[in-house]
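Lest this sound abstract, we let one protein speak, letters for residues, whole numbers for local backbone shapes, and leave readers to judge:
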Amino acid sequence: MHLAMSLFAFFRYVLDLPFKLRNKLLYMMQKGSVFSRDGVQSDSESTRYQDSVRTILESESNFRNFRRRYNYREILEHVTYSLGKSYLEKIDELRTLSNDEIVKIKKNDFIGKPRRYFYKDFGLVSPTTIRYSAVALEIEKLFGSEGIENIAEIGCGYGGQARILYLIFKVQNFDLFDLKDVQHLIKKYLSASSGVGKFKFPALKDLGKVQDSQWDLVISNYAFSELPADLQREYLVQVIQKSKRGYMIMNSGQTNNTGRSTGKLSIEEIREYIPNLQILPEVPLTGPDNYLLVWGSSGL
């Protein structure tokens, strides 16, 4: 089964190559880099991601298979079959998921027709959903499952990570920060998959009017590290400093092998806002500049 899935994944990779090369050439011709260097846009905004989200929102037919569209998958649904296996190994090390938890987690894939593969214990599931599960269980190990009722997420994809965190923690309020179009997609996805009762979609610019905003946990899977420095500072003041705990997977700020750290805050600058942060390795490592920032953990 593993060999068959590996060959199937390779076949899909080959099919994607023309689209991958096309987009890379277009980015290089238009901007000179696939990463944002203008100090205004995030890395995602410098790609076709935002346009792809707007296209998805144009019609129900586009929404039905949005997780298969290449320009969207390039940013949000690109976890490979083999990387999914590595995340599954991480899950096995963290704790055993019950059959009921697996069934609920796999409902992430009922919307958007993602590419799925067969994995031991999980059955057919998208590797992205496995990654979201591994992140949720790592957060559970670092912080425990009690006392985390108010969560903020910076950069939320289509809402898949939020939905899985909602299954594991006793969430009373979940604030999802992202571009307005992306927030519309998240709301549509969550409405179709599990409802949006405890999920909110605030605008960062409005937080200054709310003095008592506070969270038990703030998370970000790469998104914070892909923001321009000025916007990173705004999130640090308005959200991150107001959270008791934090879990952020980073791909900028420490090294610059990919060039992505250009125009972003350094880890030393971030530490000025979060003096008690800890730097951990990203496991599995998915990029040469990647690492994990954690604070407020009792599990270290």
User: Anything to note?
Assistant: Residues 2-76 form one domain. The chain has two domains: 2-76, 129-295.
